[in-house]
Amino acid sequence: MSRILIMRFSAMGDVAMTVPVITSFALEYPQLEITILSRDIFKPLFAQMPPNVTFMGIHFNGEYKGLGGLNSLFNELSAMKFDYVADFHDVLRTKYLRLRFKMQGVKVQKIDKGRKGKKLLTRRSDKKRVMQPSSFCRYADVIQRLGFSLSLNFKSIYGESHGNIDAIESVVGKKTVGESWIGIAPFAKHKGKIYPAELMEIVVAHFANRPNTKVFLFGGGNHEKKIIDGWVDKYPTLYSMIGKLKLNSELALISNIDVMLSMDSANMHLASIVNTPVVSIWGATHPYAGFMGWQQPLTNAVQIDLECRPCSIYGNKACYRNDYACLWNIKPDSVISKIESVLV
Q1: What is the average pLDDT score of the chain?
Q2: Does residue 124 belong to any structural domain of this protein?
C-alpha cells in the first residue's frame, strides 16, 4: 500500500481549505494511506475523515523547535516510509522537510501560490482584476502533479447530515421548528478585513430583534470579547460563543446554523466545510484572490467597487487612503438584505 504525506501547518482558514481536497482524494483512492501533518490544534477539522486518513499533530515550540527539532521530525516521518510528499504550504519548515525527502528519492511536489497573478491583482495602478485559481484548485494541483487524477466531490465533513449538538444543548439551546439560527463572526486578523464595529452593531441589532431568531456571536481574545460582551449587554437575545465551545463542538454548532455572516476569515471556511451558507464581507481583500469559501457563491460576497481595491491579499497592509472606504462605504442595509435573502 502506497503512502502519501500532506503538509499544511497554518493558518486555520488555509488548513480548513485542505479538507474538501483531502476528503475527495481519500475517497477516490481508498487504497492509499494518507497522513496529514499539521498543528495539533487543527485536529478537529479532520475528525470525520475517511478511514485511510491519519492526522499527525505537531507543535514547534516544544520537541520540534528549531533545526534540531525539524531533524527529529524528519526522522520520525522518514521511518514511516512515504512514497509521496505533497507540500500544501511551501514555507521554510516544509521546504526543509521536502528537500530531505527528495534527497531520499521520495516523489515530492509543492503548491504554486500564484504570486505573480496576485501581485497584478493588488498593485496600485493598472490592476488585473482576474479570478485567480482557488486554494482548493492549487491544493488539488499538487496531488495531480504527483500523478493522481482527482475530482473534487465534497459536501460537508458530516456528509449529508449535520453535526450532533446534543452534548452542547445546555449552551446553545434546542432548535425549534421554524426558528432561524444565524452566526455572526465579525472579526479577522487584520484591520483591512474587519467591518467597522459601529456598522456591524446595526446588523447585529437588526437580527437580535428579528422574531423567532437566535444569533450566535463568534470571536476570541480580550478585545473581541469586550466588543461582543457590550453587544450582549445591549441586546440580551444574543448568544456569545467566546470561550464556550471547543473547535469540534463549534463546528457541530455551525453546521446547524442557517447562515453565517463572516469576514474574509477562518470562520468563512469553517462554515463552508460544514455546508453552511456564508454571507461574507470583503474590504481590502477580494474573492478574486482565490480564498472564497468552498462552494460559496460569489453573489453572497458583500463588497463595493473602488479603484484602489483589492490592495492586499491578506488585508495586512495599511490603507493608503487612510479611510478604509472599502469597508466604511458598505451599508449595513446591504448586509442585512443579503442575509435575509439567504434565510428565505
Answers
A1: 98
A2: yes
pLDDT band at 1 (very low <50, low <70, confident <90, very high): confident
Three cell numbers written together for 156: 460537508
Q: Nearest-CA neighbor of 324 among 197, 204, 222?
A: 197
**What CATH number does residue 105 fall under?**
3.40.50.2000
The vertex-61 CA angle with 58 and 67, nearest 5°, equals 90
Which residue range forms the structural domain that includes residue 30?
3-145
**Look-up: residue for cell 478585513?**
193
Overall domain count for the chain: 2
- The span from the CA of 203 to the CA of 188, in Å, is 17
154 domain residue, yes or no: no
Residue 291 and residue 135 in contact, taking contact as beta carbons nearer than 8 Å: yes
From edge to edge, which strands make up the β-sheet containing 33-39? 53-58, 33-39, 3-7, 84-87, 107-110
The model's pTM: 0.97
- CA 140: distance to chain centroid? 16
- The yes-or-no verdict on residue 48 having pLDDT over 90 is yes
Q: Is residue 247 part of a domain?
A: yes
> Are residues 173 and 306 located together in one domain of the fold?
yes
How far apart CA 48 and CA 141 sit, in angstroms, is 23
298-314 per-position pLDDT tens digit: 999 999 999 999 999 99
Radius of gyration of the chain (CA): 21
User: What is the rounded CA–CA span in Å between residue 240 and residue 164?
Assistant: 20
